[in-house]
Amino acid sequence: MSETWKKNTKRRFIDSIKIRAIIVIIIFGFFGLILALNYIITGDIKGDKILKKENIEFGFNLDSFKVQKDTIRFGDSFGEIMLRNKLSYSQIYNIVQSIKDSFDVRWLTAGKPYTILSSKDSLANPQYFIYQPNRLNYVVIDFSNFDSILAYNKKKPFKIVKKTTLGIINSSLSETMDENGLPWELINQLSDIYAWTIDFTRIQKGDRFKIIYNERYIEDTLLVGIKSIDAAYFLHNGEELFAYNFVIDSMKKTPEFFDQNGNSLQRTFLKSPVRFSNISSRYNLKRRIAYYGNKVRPHKGTDFAAPTGTPIMATADGRVEKSSYTRANGYYVKIKHNKKYSTQYLHMQKNGRVKKRSIC
């Protein structure tokens, strides 16, 4: 038996062992990968048990309760809902009286969701009533212990997402922003920022805007509103108008907007008392009306055409001198701003709760 044959035989033996080892490693690696993926899908592993993720909402583990979710119906009241859920009249009265300083149950609005958490035993006694006036906020009425009933307000956890948008005006600011899929809350906030510097009834085709703003999301994908606008840019009639958000009073946390030179955008008088309206008749002391034989009938005001129910804003701070109704003016309000200036708001559908001598 030659040395060459021995060496070849030894090499083949070693190679076969290596191949078997590789195969074993691959097989164990494959099954290990399967097990790891299974753990990832089913949950974390602790010992021989799979830990199930807790079903947390409103700060409660819902798996610990019998959960009933519904919507406030027209004609519903807190008392009627609780009666349907096995609470007595005396218990309901006790709850309402205990929380009247922190939450008025008469605020429940039809169409809004609510959740009742009851004990999971055979009695299924209601313990918590959770009301959601909007998607972000909720009110918890805790009567799990009738000796210490309480109500408190909470917010769902949310995250802030910074966004940037821009656009070119084709017809009006509101239509352009709406076409870009921007929420009305953002449109209104932008109009408030520039209310003292831009007359939105004179917006021109080709004007441009850019906004850097923050949106609030719950559950990562559900938009629950605009938190704030950080900065805005508007190119109007060839003039660049910048706006930067800055909080002057750190205690009140009230934001104010300034231009690139540090000047406040809030002026003495608003450019327009109505958002997104058209001027149907301008101030004109030489106006002639055909109905009166083409005679001069001065028009000492500006008429804004807007949908019924559009809010009207006072153009500056002041004191209400009159809030009344006449045949010629309809419902109207007169505001005195200082010794020199007063403004009047005529032909309104209603004057709401504005009373004489109240402060705007």
C-alpha-based Rg, rounded:
34 Å
* Quaternary status: single chain
| Low-pLDDT segments, ≥5 res | none
Q: Tell me the structural class.
A: alpha+beta
Topology diagram in text:
Elements: H1 3-42, E1 44-46, E2 49-51, E3 56-57, E4 60-61, E5 66-71, H2 78-84, H3 89-99, E6 113-118, E7 126-131, E8 137-142, E9 150-155, E10 158-168, H4 173-179, H5 184-193, E11 208-218, E12 222-236, E13 239-249, E14 254-258, E15 278-281, E16 288-289, E17 295-296, E18 303-305, E19 319-326, E20 330-336, E21 342-348
Antiparallel strand pairs: 1-2, 3-4, 5-6, 6-7, 7-8, 8-9, 10-11, 11-12, 12-13, 13-14, 15-18, 16-17, 19-20, 20-21
3D structure, described in words:
The chain has 360 residues and is α+β, with helices and mostly antiparallel strands. The chain has four domains: 49 residues; 100 residues, Nuclear Transport Factor 2, Chain: A (Roll), CATH 3.10.450.350; 101 residues, Nuclear Transport Factor 2, Chain: A; 71 residues, Glucose Permease (Domain IIA). Helix content is 21%, strand content 35%. A five-stranded antiparallel sheet has the order 5-6-7-8-9. A five-stranded antiparallel sheet has the order 10-11-12-13-14, with helices on one face. A hairpin with a 5-residue loop joins strand 20 and strand 21. The chain starts with a helix and ends in a 12-residue tail after the last strand. The model has no long low-confidence stretch (mean pLDDT 79).
